[in-house]
Amino acid sequence: MISSGFRPCSLLVAATLTLLIIQAQGITRHYHFNVQMANVTMLCGTKSIVTVNGRFPGPEIVAREGDRLHVRVTNHVAHNMTIHWHGIRQLRTGWADGPAYITQCPIQTGQTYVYRFTVTGQRGTLWWHAHISWFRSTVYGAIIILPKRGVPYPFPAPHKEVPVIFGEWWRADTEEVMSQALKVGGPPNISDAYTINGHPGPLYDCSVKDTFKLKVAPGKTYLLRLVNAALNDELFFSVANHTLTIVEVDAVYVKPLTVDTLVISSGQTTNVLLTTKLLYPNASFYMSATGYSVDRPPAYFDNTTVSGILEYRNPSTSSFRKELPIFSPTLPPFNDTKFVVSFITKLRSLNTPEYPAAVPRSVDKRFFFTISLGTLPCPENTTCQGFHGGQYAAAVNNVSFILPSKALLQSHFTDQSTGVYQPDFPAMPLSPFNYTGTPPNNSNLGTGTRLLVLPYNTSVELVMQDTSIVGFESHPLHLHGYNFFVVGQGFGNYDPTTDPVKFNLVDPVERNTVSVPPGGWVAIRFLADNPGVWFMHCHFAVHTAWGLKMACLVQDGSNPNEKLLPPPSDMPKC
Ligand code: C2O
Question: pLDDT by residue (tens digit) across 43-73?
C-alpha cells in the first residue's frame, strides 16, 4: 500500500514531466579525448601522427541541440595541444573555444582540460580540430548535432547518415613542413594526397585497398555529412551519375539545392541528401574531390583527386560485387571560379517561421578589411624564398597578426592587456589603394597584436576585400563564436555606394566560414551578442601561419546573462 498521499499515477506523471523537462533542457554528454601518438600507414609509408584516442580521423561527437558537452582532453604527446569546436557558438563560454593563445593557454604534456559548453540553437554537422600549429592535419573529427528529440528534419528523413570528412595528407611530418617553410619564408611543400575519412583512394600509390566505401541499397536516401578538414584547399565534390541535394551548411538549414558538383571551403561543412537509383545499377560510382585554386599554378597546390566508392548491394544476391564497371564524375577545371561563384550565390537560408534568417536590418558599425598576402623583410643572413626576396606573410588591414604568449581572453578578463594586445584594430585600411589594380611595388606588411573592440549587441557589417599585392586568391575566412549572414559579394573593388543596394537581407546564407572571392569582396552581417575574444582567420593553415588572422573583443552587456562567464578552475596556464 502506498501511504502519505502518493499515488502511482501521480508518480508516473511526475516522472514523465521530469523527462520532458530534461529533454527540453538537454542532457550532459561526456567524452574523453586522449591525445596520443599512433602509427598510420598511407601512400606506401608509415608515419607516426598525433591522434585523439589513437584514431584517424578522430572520434565523432554526437549531441542533440540543447545538450551540454563535457570533453575531457588529456595530452599524452610531447607537444602543446588545444581542441577547437569549429562552428559551435560557445555562448558566454569562450573559455571552451580552443584557439591557442586566443582563448586559452595550451594543454601541456601530461595535463588535462575539460571543455564544457552547451549546443544552443544549432543543428547539423560541425567538426572539431586541434587549434595549435598544424596539428589539425591529423587531429580532427565530426560533430553531429541532432535536432531536439521529437523535432523532425525539415527534409525527408534519411535512411542512413554518414560523415564524409575530407582531409589532406603529407608523407612528411606536417610540423616540419611548416617550420621549414617559415624558416625560408617560402610556401610550404604541398600535400601528397587528399583523403575521405582517412582514405586516399585508388588514384594514389598503394591506395587501391585504402579506399572509403559507402555501401548502399537501391531506392534509399542517405544524408552525407561533409566536412572539409583540408589544411590549405577548397574542394569540388561530386558523385558519378548521382545528384546531391544540399540541405544544410555550417549547421544551419538551407533551401534545398540540387547539384551535380558542390564546392566546400576549408573549414566548411555541408549536409547533402543522396538518393540512390531505384533499380540495382550493376555498376559502382566514384565519389571524388579535388582542389579549387585560382592564381596558383598547379605546382603550388595539391592538384590530385581523392575518390571513395559508392557501392550498391545487389538485392537478388544481397552481395557487393567487385568486378563491376565504375563510373567517374566530371569535376570542374581546378581554376573554375565561374563555377564556384554560380554555386555559392545559389545557397540561401531556409528562412521559414521555424528557422528564420535573423539578418540584422540596420547596422551600427561598418568595417572594411583588406585580406592580403604580402611580405615581411627577410631576416639578416637568410635568403628568403618569398615574393620580392622577402618572407611570405599575410595580413588583415595590413596588420600581420602576432600571436601573444599569454591568452588574450584571460588578459581581457583580468584587465591585464598591457604588453599582450592593443585594443586598436583599424576599422579600415590606413592608406586606401586600388586593391584589385596593378599590384603596388611595396609588398611589405605591418605586424601587431591588435583587437577590434565591439560593444555588446553591436550590429556589424564587415566587407572583406581581396588584394592584388602578391596575387589574387580565395581566402576562406572563419569567425569564431558567431554565425554571420553573407549579404553580398562581387569582383573588383567594393563600391560602398552601388554594392549595398544589391545586398540580400531576406534569405542570405548563414555560416561561420566564407570565402573571400579571388580579386573580389564579400560582405557579412552579424549581431555581436556573444561576449568574449573571438578569433577570425583564413582557414588555410598556411595563411594563418603567415598572419592572416585577427581577433574581435566583444564586451559584456549590462545584464548578468550578457556577460562572459568566469573561467573554469582547470584552465591551462601558459
Ligand atoms: Cu576551424 Cu580557428 O578554426
Answer: 999 999 999 999 999 999 999 999 999 999 9
CATH code linked to domain 160-344: 2.60.40.420
Q: pLDDT by residue (tens digit) across 218-231? A: 999 999 999 999 99
Topology of the domain covering 365-562:
Immunoglobulin-like (2.60.40)
Q: Is 267 in the pocket of ligand 1 (CB under 6 A)?
A: yes
Answer yes or no: is the C-beta of 136 below 6 A from any ligand 1 atom. Answer: no
CA–centroid distance, residue 160 to ligand 1 (Å) = 28
Return the domain boundaries, the chain. Answer: 9-146, 160-344, 365-562
Cell output for 195: 583523403
Which amino acid is present at 503? F
Which CATH homologous superfamily contains domain 9-146? Cupredoxins -  blue copper proteins (2.60.40.420)
The rounded distance, in Å, linking the Cα atoms of 126 and 469 is 33
Strands 326-327 and 284-292, sheet pairing: parallel
Whether the link from the prior residue into 57 is cis, omega within 30° of 0, is yes
Residues 289-303: pLDDT tens digits? 999 998 666 668 899
Q: Is 129 in the pocket of ligand 1 (CB under 6 A)?
A: yes
- Does the CB atom of residue 296 touch ligand 1 within 6 A? no
CA-only gyration radius of the chain, Å: 24
Task: Please determine whether the domains at 9-146 and 160-344 fall in the same fold group of CATH.
Answer: yes
Query: Does residue 86 have its Cβ closer than 6 Å to ligand 1?
Result: yes
Q: For residue 333, give every residue at least 6 positions away whose Cβ sits within 8 Å of its Cβ, in sequence order, or none.
A: none
Put simply, whether the predicted model's pTM sits higher than 0.90 gets the answer yes
Give the Å distance between the CA of 84 and the centre of ligand 1: 7
